[in-house]
Amino acid sequence: MRVGSGYDVHKLTEGRKLILGGVELPYEKGLLGHSDADVLLHAIMDAMLGAAALGDIGRHFPDNDEAYRGISSLLLLKEVNNLLKEKGFYVVNLDATVIAERPKIAPYVSLMTDKISNMLQIDGSRVNIKGTTTEGLGFCGRGEGIASQATVLIRRRG
Q1: Rounded to the nearest 10 degrees, what angle do helices 73-86 and 109-120 cross at?
Q2: Which residues, including other chains, have CB under 8 Å from residue 135's CB and lie 6 or more apart?
Q3: Which residue among 65, 98, 103, 115 is buried most deeply as judged by most CB within 10 Å?
Q4: How confident is the model at residue 44, as a pLDDT?
Q5: 3-state secondary structure of 1
Q6: Do residues 9 and 145 touch, judged by C-beta distance below 8 A?
């Protein structure tokens, strides 16, 4: 068994959709980034890659590669899962936190869990997503951005 951790941050900006966990949330701002800027999935992917000692998402999906401009991070998550499979690993479980004052993610957690577990081909009971605030402190508290962190346990097949 191996454990990996991931962390990601993106700035909130006007004129973009807010995508978290592969789900579009109704909100007046979205996250700025080369892809869809899904901080939750980016943290999960980095945790998966870290657990398998395969680097990070910047190495596999560089932000200067036009092939990834605007791409759904769900597709990138599927690719990361395939990389782990090629190395003989599978995700046992994951725990992730979205750090934001707003919007509240609780109404969307079930849908996020479904999308992530389907992409990873694991039971939804192995995926835990939660939200927290910073009580108004820092860039997340001021509504300037959203952060996410994740921990993933993987295991070698066989």
Answers
A1: 40
A2: 141
A3: 98
A4: 98
A5: coil
A6: yes
- Does the pLDDT of residue 158 top 90, yes or no? no
Distances 33 to 45, 95, 158 between C-alpha atoms, Å: 16, 23, 38
**What is the DSSP-derived secondary structure letter of residue 77?**
H
Looking at every residue in the chain, the average pLDDT score rounds to 96
Q: What is the pTM of this model?
A: 0.96
Residue spans of the domains in the chain: they are 2-156
Backbone angles phi, psi at 149, to 5 degrees: -135, 150
Determine contact, residues 114/123, Cβ cutoff 8 Å: no
Give the model confidence (pLDDT) of 14-24 as tens digits: 999 999 999 99
Q: Are 108 and 20 in contact (CB under 8 A)?
A: yes
> Nearest CA to 84 among 44, 51, 39?
51
